[in-house]
């Protein structure tokens, strides 16, 4: 008899991957390293430590060990650690450095706070040669350095630049081979009747047989839920998919996050007949299709929950109740999605399009009010009113772009002026080299006055690496006139501008009365500053 075992959930895997245990010995070493670091001069270079793991196992280099090794490296280089970007359970092949949660924040928003990026090994940092090339270009642009603990990588030397390219190429080849093997495995499993890898469709779970093979068995709770849904769909007055989802959640057969679309996808999945399936994206509609074997017959991987006749009857019942909705638009049917908010339930307003007798009707509805609230017809009129209100309030604001300014040149000039000032001040002391004659003394005093004026003219902020806002000569009105509603919607969503929509029923009138209230953050001017995306063209 098969022994039933549930696969570990994604939540469990994530929790297992992100936890790093510090032993008392590790913590003692960390304290010693921080004490030694505190003795460094104030102008010591600043180091950011990058720690990454795909999966934390006994065979991998733990994040604790990576951090301690990198702190030792920073101390040896005379650098002060200003932060640790720890991205665990993250694949370097799939997620480049600038898109990781912690390291990405440092790269995109906190570049002035560090001078070097230290990592344990190159494959802990990147695994694609294109990602490595992008990071080298970024570091050269912003005056940063890349340093590896276990590779000869240092952007301050020509040999280091050559080495980082070579090692990065090897890492990409290694990762590509792994990706090829994984893709080949998936192609192979699609043609097999045995269950090798992957997540089972709803209604099934994995089990281990006595000889150690993994097989699919029917989940008894899901079996009862699916057959109840079939019976409900075939009643004289059939239940809607929304009603089915509510009943199953209330009965505890499904989690609280079950939606109507998920309920329909489960009932329409041909995997319920015990066949192997694959995803088929056609016209923006997510569906699954049966995989055929070499004999042109469906590949059976488990016992059937529905017979072919039962599955067909369910599809016919769903088709009778289904609405002939238009195909999804690539950019989405709703403009200003995330900006227009229902005042009553605080959920997004979305466009609902119905097709009746060949004619399409569109109206705005919300997600949490009963039946979507009072549907607001003519979404384009609401969009137009929102555009007018936004232009009145924010149209005249100048378009400011964030630019990075390095303080290295200003620091060198400041150091030169301070050394020259000290030189002349020492020479004007009693017995100094400029006090021997009246002429040399007067000339030295005049030069010293000029040096002091130049020192006073240097802005202290100019000696620091910093972000500055620069006006590009345009206003947001002209920017939005060029880019249209899409550009305005993207900017409003980015800065957190919201518009509350209130719909009130009017006696004797089908369309409700619409009131709109624009909600603008107090720091909207700071939020409106455009941040250049250094990685927009990176693939």
UniProtKB/TrEMBL annotation:
GO terms for molecular function: DNA binding; DNA strand exchange activity. Residues 201-324 form the Recombinase domain. SUPFAM superfamilies: Resolvase-like (SSF53041). Keywords: DNA recombination, DNA-binding. InterPro entries: DNA_bind_recomb_sf, DNA_bind_recombinase_dom, Resolv_N, Resolvase-like_N_sf, SSR_resolvase, Zn_ribbon_recom_dom. This is Recombinase family protein. It comes from Streptomyces fagopyri.
């Amino acid at each position: 008899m098969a022994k039933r075992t549930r696969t570990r959930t994604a939540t469990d895997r994530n929790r297992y991957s992100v936890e790093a245990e510090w032993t008392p010995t590790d913590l003692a070493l960390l304290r010693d390293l921080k004490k030694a670091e505190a003795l460094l001069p104030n102008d010591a270079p600043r180091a950011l430590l990058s720690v990454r793991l795909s999966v934390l196992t006994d065979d991998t280099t733990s994040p604790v060990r990576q951090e301690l090794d990198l702190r030792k490296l920073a101390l040896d280089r005379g650098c002060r650690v200003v932060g640790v970007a720890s991205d665990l359970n993250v694949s370097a092949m799939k997620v480049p450095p600038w898109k990781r949660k912690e390291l990405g924040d440092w790269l995109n928003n906190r570049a002035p706070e560090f001078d070097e990026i230290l990592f344990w090994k190159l494959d802990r940092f990147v695994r694609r040669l294109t990602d490595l090339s992008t990071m080298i270009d970024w570091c050269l642009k912003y005056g940063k350095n890349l340093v590896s603990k276990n590779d000869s990588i240092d952007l301050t030397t020509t040999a280091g630049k050559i080495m980082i390219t070579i090692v990065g190429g090897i890492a990409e080849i290694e990762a590509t081979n792994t990706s090829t093997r994984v893709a080949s495995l998936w192609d192979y499993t699609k043609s097999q009747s045995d269950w090798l890898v992957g997540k089972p469709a709803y209604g099934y779970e994995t089990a281990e047989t006595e000889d150690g093979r993994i097989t699919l068995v029917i989940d008894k709770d899901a079996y009862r839920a699916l057959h109840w849904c079939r019976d409900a769909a075939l009643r004289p007055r059939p239940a809607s998919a929304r009603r089915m989802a509510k009943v199953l959640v209330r009965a505890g057969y499904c989690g609280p996050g079950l939606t109507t679309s998920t309920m329909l996808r489960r009932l329409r999945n041909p995997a319920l007949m015990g066949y192997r399936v694959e995803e088929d994206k056609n016209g923006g509609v997510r569906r699954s299709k049966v995989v055929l074997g070499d004999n042109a017959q469906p590949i059976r991987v488990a016992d059937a929950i529905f017979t072919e006749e039962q599955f067909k009857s369910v599809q016919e019942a769903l088709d009778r109740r289904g609405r002939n909705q238009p195909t999804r638009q690539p950019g989405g049917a709703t403009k200003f999605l995330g900006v227009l908010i229902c005042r009553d339930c605080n959920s997004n307003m979305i466009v609902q399009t119905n097709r009746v007798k060949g004619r399409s009707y569109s109206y705005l509805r919300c997600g949490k009010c009963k039946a979507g609230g009072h549907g607001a017809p003519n979404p384009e009129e609401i969009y137009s009113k929102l555009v007018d209100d936004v232009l009145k309030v924010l149209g005249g604001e100048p378009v400011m772009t964030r630019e990075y300014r390095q303080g290295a040149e200003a620091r060198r000039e400041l150091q030169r002026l301070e050394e020259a000032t000290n030189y002349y001040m020492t020479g004007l002391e009693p017995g100094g080299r400029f006090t021997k004659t009246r002429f040399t003394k007067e000339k030295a005093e005049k030069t010293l006055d000029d040096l002091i004026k130049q020192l006073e003219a240097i802005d202290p902020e100019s000696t620091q690496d910093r972000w500055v806002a620069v006006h590009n000569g345009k206003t947001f009105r002209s920017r939005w006139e060029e880019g249209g509603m899409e550009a305005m919607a993207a900017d409003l969503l980015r800065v957190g501008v919201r518009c509350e929509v209130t719909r009130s029923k009017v006696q004797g009138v089908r369309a409700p009365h619409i009131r709109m209230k624009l909600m603008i953050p107090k720091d909207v001017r700071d939020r409106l500053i455009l941040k250049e995306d250094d990685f927009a063209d990176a693939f």
